User: Fold these one by one.
Assistant:
Number 1:
Amino acid sequence: MNRSSKLSKVYLALVFIILYTPIFYLIFYSFNSGGTMSSFKSFSLEHYKAVFADTRLIMILINTIIIALLSALISTAIGVIGAIGIVYLKNRKSRNALLSLNNVLIVSPDVIIGASFLILFTMVGVKLGFASVLISHIAFSVPIVVIMVLPKLQEMSSTLIDAALDLGASKREVLSRVIIPYIKPGIFAGFFLALTYSLDDFAVTFFVTGNGFTTLSVEIYSMARAGITLTINALSGLLFIVTLLLVLGYYFVTNRTKNPLRTGVPK
Amino acid sequence: MTDNTIIRFENVTKSYDSATPVLNNVSFEIERGKFYTLLGPSGCGKTTILRLIAGFMEPTSGDIYFNGNKINHVPANERQVNTVFQDYALFPHLNVFENIAFGLRIKKLKKEEITRRVLEALKFVNLEGYENREIVEMSGGQKQRVAIARAIVNDPEVILLDEPLSALDLKLRTEMQYELRELQQRLGKTFIFVTHDQEEALAMSDEIFVMNAGVIQQSGTPMDIYDEPINRFVADFIGESNIVPGVMIADYRVQFGGKDFECADKGLSPNEKVDIVIRPEDLEITTVDRGKMTVKVDTQLFRGVHYELSTFDKDGNEWLVHSTKKAAVGEEIGLDFDPEAIHVMRLNETEEEFDKRLESYGEENHAK
């Protein structure tokens, strides 16, 4: 018993080391004053300086963040409304059909989504750029939000809605005063997940971007193809830190909203 | 219809899909300021009546009146009733104060008035000082009180209670029975209480509606229903009873268990087949030669206040006896009872016919 648990701990540590070593290797060399990742000369921040000196790169970073925030916000709104719609659909068959359609979008490969959006945009005549990237990011984020919000909605007892109606609330007040506050943790989870999906999306963006508009992941890809420079390392390091902050932020927010729902004994 | 009537059901039927209706052509009146109980086994339609009054569903046919106005299609949020739910349905994201204030905030009352009324409601349910607690910090009984406070704070004309005590343990349940009854009398409001617990119904109500299979079997005061059940179902559901088949030989003469007995019923056709009910506490243990009936003791249980004896007569009918006296298992004993203890039930008698028959006895007694 004791030995096996020790063994499993070692295994777990090994898995995490394998997963995280490349990232830390990358970040470690971003501080290398030498130009390659083969030998570490001395500590320097010159690559970070290079990143911040490159205004084009900074613009791309800002674009990426704007796309991520906007698409996460819009898809959260759409996803929440969608999830509520799905849950309170009376017909079970159409409810299951909608749910399946939603889940198919989550499991279908990004390449296919990206390619199909490219076909759609060229057919309709949407200029590839900011708008096309934003629309496609919203599209692949909505199903994620739905999936995050749905369990909370299903867990909510229907008598809560009856009780609110009974106390005189209109349908709108039921939504704003009971349903939305109840599913808030799910909404936050959906928003943050949509944010991270949008931030690190490469495949879909690669297909639908154009007119000189790029996001960070696409830019890093093209920089890496042109030849490795340690600027990429520095950029990746920055991105990693941002992601880490987001995860921490998500953890903090959900923990705070979850706290009052914790099962506790009377004080 | 009197001025005192607050809710009236007229031939109300409710069915889902095309299957047998949950509620079958039900008509009744609810008077102001009384404590009503809808009593019946699960699936008898009692909760359906409550949901129809609350406005969570609409009748398939028939009409519902509230203060004389038809309210079939009035939505729940515009009705002058409030409900205490079985699972309490308290909002977990709000604390005790905000839960109770919910209805008042919807009505957009002034802040001071909300505070005053919420604190008053808390006082009414003996929860002073609990206003800042979170719902998860409250015990089952306390949640129950919050749910009641949330209903009464809106000052509704009718309060509906959907099996509110079923989740509590026995001791707390008995305590809450007293409290609810007392609360109803203090407020003077109409309470409609749904339960499947016959003791609860007998203890708390002014008026009981016994329901089965979507129909009100009998309505009346707890004593009426206990002493004069209309049929086998009611007799069996309310308290323990001995129910045996019998024949009405003539007025005041009934035959069962192979013997003739004197009884208090009349006006039935000669040789009509009937059901006989004798409550276990109306049977008295005596010696074989003194008893009106001879039975053999099969089992004996000590119940604290009394012994519960299961006995069988020659025909194999079981007779349950509640007695403070002891008997020996396997022994033959005599059972004695008053003529009034025999309650005769006609088969398939409607409530109207039943009431008329009972009234005719009363007139006769007055005439004497």
Number 2:
Amino acid sequence: MSGIPPVVAIERLTKRYSSRAVVDDLTFTLDEGQIAGFLGPNGAGKSTILRLLLGLAAPSSGMAHILGRPFAELPEPARAVGAVLESGDFHPARSGRDHLRVLALAAGVGPARVDGVLETVKLTEAGGRPVRTYSLGMRQRLGLAAALLGDPRLLVLDEPANGLDPAGVHWLRGFLRAYADQGGTVLVSSHLLGEVTQTVDRVLILSRGRLVADRPIADFAQDDSLESTYLALTTAVTA
Amino acid sequence: MRRQLRSEFAKLTTTRTLAGVLAALVGLAALAVALHAYGLSTSQLATRSDQRGIFVDVAVNLGALFAALLGALSITSEIRTGTIRPTFLATPRRKTVVQAKAVLVFATGVLTGLAATGTVAGAGTLALDLRGISVQLTVGDYVRLLSGGVLGGGLVAVIGLAVGAVIRGQISSLVTLFTWLLFVENLLSDLPKAHRFVPGALAQALAGGDRDGVLHTPATAALILAAYTVVMLAAASLATSRGDVA
């Protein structure tokens, strides 16, 4: 044992609203360089888990740590984790560049990095335009640029392929692979099984807030294997 | 905290909301004081107390309303547009976000108070002069109007921020502030002993108001209004720290 904490450690995490558990006794860890995909039907708890991990919601019990600490206790959160939770988290009248500048100032990141991440997501030319003029795909890329500002060790992405055209999806896939190859860790939620198959190393299937499968993507190499497993697991629990 | 202050300042200066609200305030304040200066009889505008009362009423009522509005918008627009999520991801210690907002909102309220009192002082004096009414106000009256309006604007703006942070919904926050400042405080003016302790009346006392239902000791008014602000800010900090962000 090296004593180095995993990038993500979730242990017996539970979130209840009234008496209903939307996340139920969840445990898993993520190590450096992995791309893990959360799969699950609508309402399975994917987004809630990401919000719990990022301190936007408080757990009813259990713990969610990033690099050995709760998110709120990270000394430089933007350098530890970058996240895209919604494609609409922008002031419509603010330009893409100004949106990034606002966040960069709060995170203690220099202005040169703003131009750098705009270039990374191919939004340099559109950076001066108000976000209300952006397509859904451009907003997704702007969200990713914001997540990359602090050059973080972990990326948390909620449905990142939503609104991207095929070229955008292809670009995102290549970007995430290169990021993981350089030691970055990615936790991505999706309901697009085909997309997940081509992007992630590991699949975590959720149903009604419970983790019903945690397996390497290689286990699903056979055609339709992931889909049949997903349907069997999620339908069995919801039936 | 410095980072958050710079970030909040950038938020304020990268949209046109502040400029638009201030422009509307200046236009309304000029119109309102001109209507008073031309609409009232000369006997209602003859004395120093009459003139001071109208200037304070128009400037402080409008200034406080717009300051509270800007204060509430500083957090409810973030909740409405969803930018509160990246804000809290960049600064997970939410109390720091509220504190930074309070500093910037106070400064915005100061600017709002200055715009309201400055416009009323300038346009009101001009209108009285054009109508041939001798202006009775002293330099001290103008100084008190501007300085009291500035301090009152800053404090009421932070109360507006606190109301927005506790209620969270933009429309419900603005309706609450408008209802209180325009309706409830007006109703309470029939009970002068109670009215003198409401935020709007305290702001009037700071700016030189001397009617029934307004404290005549500005230092006491400043202390009470500052105490309201601190209590409301503590409530805002608590509400923001505890709630889940959707």
